[in-house]
Structures are given as structure tokens and as C-alpha cells.
Automatic annotation (TrEMBL):
GO molecular function (one): ATP binding
Domain of life of the organism encoding this protein: Bacteria
ABC transporter domain mapped to chain residues: 10-233
Record key words, sorted: ATP-binding, Nucleotide-binding, Transport
Keyword NADP assigned: no
Protein name: ABC transporter ATP-binding protein
Keyword Nucleotide-binding appears in the UniProt entry: yes
InterPro entries: AAA+_ATPase, ABC_transporter-like_ATP-bd, P-loop_NTPase
Family: Belongs to the ABC transporter superfamily.
Length: 242
């Protein structure tokens, strides 16, 4: 394996997905490195879901390439990926412990891996409480623990702070940063700048299937204001769309 392959978790090149004449993805490049939190930002319809489906092997791109840890999207490389696309359906009568034990058994993961997953999402103390009594933030965290069970090296989170209160949002940011600190590559898809602003190392802004910006968030700033730069970018991209 080359050095690039070991430090690059995800590399997408010239990705196209066309639905008839509609170009949902129109030549997207994206690279997520090990230990990095990368934000995929874009308004509704930008192509974020299409891109995530393609990289999870749920949808075949029209053209372009996707490499996960240097390999194609296939059963083996997807074993390195954990994804949380929605708050997972959880059985309210079960505790977090029981939920994780079931998932571990279903996925052939050793039961000893439950403890570190619980610790990473700061759920150790709540582990014996029934999920039905959990807040939305706790459900999200348990969802992440489930995604972490098989020790993925790349984790994909879709709108991970959706519906959370400020405390939940802060906790989620802390968890995402500690995942990166453990050497996990994190890809977050969001349509809100605020969601990714404090947690991502780099972002990509996607509008109508095209990359409009990639780099550290500060690079988006207009007169020192990142939010103003972001909205300006959306407006100018909108104006220039086909
Ligand atoms: N199966 C499909 N057939 C036709 N067009 C589709 C299909 N799936 C998505 N699209 C179109 O492709 C574009 C990108 O959709 P996508 O769902 O990837 O965007 P998104 O960035 O995830 O938006 P949202 O945040 O609203 O989910 C949209 O214009 C959408 O209408």
C-alpha cells in the first residue's frame, strides 16, 4: 500500500451521477484523510445524499472513481466504514448495553468491543437505562456507538446534530472530535454551515452537483465573515447554474 493510501481514507475523483438528463453529481472530487473531520455542505438538492449512497455502494455512479482506503467500493472496503444516516430505530424496552450486545452478535463483533464504543460516545453511565427514556441526543450517541462497534476507520454522519438542543450539539461536537483524535476519518453531510463550522477541519460546498469550494472553512470568509462568504457562494452558484 502506498503512503497516500494509508493516510487517505476516502478519495473520490470526477464523480458523475446522472438521472436521465439531470446531473445530480457533476464531476465531484473529494478526499478525506485519516484523523480528519470533513464537512460536505450544500443546500437541499445539492447532491449530498447521492454522493453518500454512491460511496456506500447503494447506488452506481454514472462515471468517476471512489476509493476507500485505496480500494474500490466493495464488501471488503465497506467493512472499514460506519454510517449513521438517520437516528436509528431503537427498541425502547432495551438498555444501551442490551442493544449493543445484540448488534455485536449480529455483526460478529467481539463483546469486548462494546465498552470502548460506549466510552467514545460518553454513554457508560447511561448504559443500563432503557432506551425509551433517552433524549434525542442520547439516541444519536447510541446510534454512533452502534456504527462504531465494528471499529470502522471511516465514519459517515448525515446531519448529526439535527434536532439536538445546544447541549446535545456541544456533546456531539466533542464526540466527533474525539473520533478524529482516535484516528478515525469523519465525513459529515449537512445543509447548515453552523453545524459543521466548529467541528470540521475542511469543508466542501456542493451546489447542484458541483464543487463550489473546498478547503478550511476560513477560506470561505468574505470580509472576515464565514457565514457571509457561504451565502454569497450559494447565491453566485445559484445564479450560474445551468
Ligand atoms: N432517484 C432519483 N431520480 C431522479 N432524480 C433524483 C433522484 N435522486 C435524487 N435526485 C435529484 O438529484 C438531486 C440531488 O439530490 P440529493 O438527494 O442527492 O440532494 P441532497 O443534497 O441530499 O439534498 P437534501 O439535503 O434535500 O437531501 C436533486 O435535484 C434530486 O431531485
Amino acid at each position: 500500500m502506498t503512503t497516500t493510501a494509508t493516510t487517505t481514507a476516502l478519495r473520490i475523483r470526477e464523480l458523475h451521477k446522472h438521472y436521465g438528463s439531470h446531473r445530480a453529481l457533476d464531476g465531484v472530487d473529494l478526499t478525506v484523510r485519516v484523523g480528519e473531520v470533513y464537512g460536505l455542505l450544500g443546500p437541499n438538492g445539492a447532491g449530498k445524499t447521492t454522493l453518500m449512497k454512491a460511496l456506500l455502494g447503494l447506488q452506481r455512479p454514472t462515471s468517476g472513481s471512489i476509493e476507500i482506503f485505496g480500494g474500490p467500493v466493495a464488501r471488503e472496503s465497506l467493512g472499514e466504514v460506519g454510517a449513521l444516516i438517520e437516528v436509528p430505530g431503537l427498541w425502547p424496552q432495551l438498555t444501551a448495553d442490551e442493544t449493543l450486545r445484540i448488534h455485536a452478535r449480529l455483526r460478529g463483533v467481539p463483546q469486548q468491543w462494546i465498552e470502548p464504543a460506549l466510552e467514545l460516545v460518553k454513554m457508560t453511565e447511561a448504559r443500563s437505562r432503557k432506551v425509551g427514556a433517552y433524549s434525542l441526543g442520547m439516541r444519536w450517541r447510541l446510534g454512533i456507538a452502534i456504527a462504531l462497534l465494528a471499529r470502522p476507520r471511516l465514519i459517515i454522519l448525515d446531519e448529526p446534530t439535527n434536532g439536538l438542543d445546544p447541549v446535545g450539539i456541544r456533546e456531539m461536537r466533542g464526540i466527533i472530535r474525539s473520533l478524529a483524535g482516535e484516528g478515525v476519518a469523519v465525513l459529515i453531510a449537512s445543509h447548515q454551515l453552523a453545524e459543521v463550522a466548529q467541528v470540521c477541519d475542511r469543508v466542501q460546498v456542493l451546489v447542484a452537483g458541483r464543487t463550489r469550494f473546498e478547503g478550511p472553512l476560513t477560506g470561505l470568509a468574505l470580509d472576515g465573515n464565514v457565514e457571509a462568504g457561504f451565502f454569497r457562494l450559494l447565491e453566485t452558484a445559484d445564479a450560474g447554474i445551468r
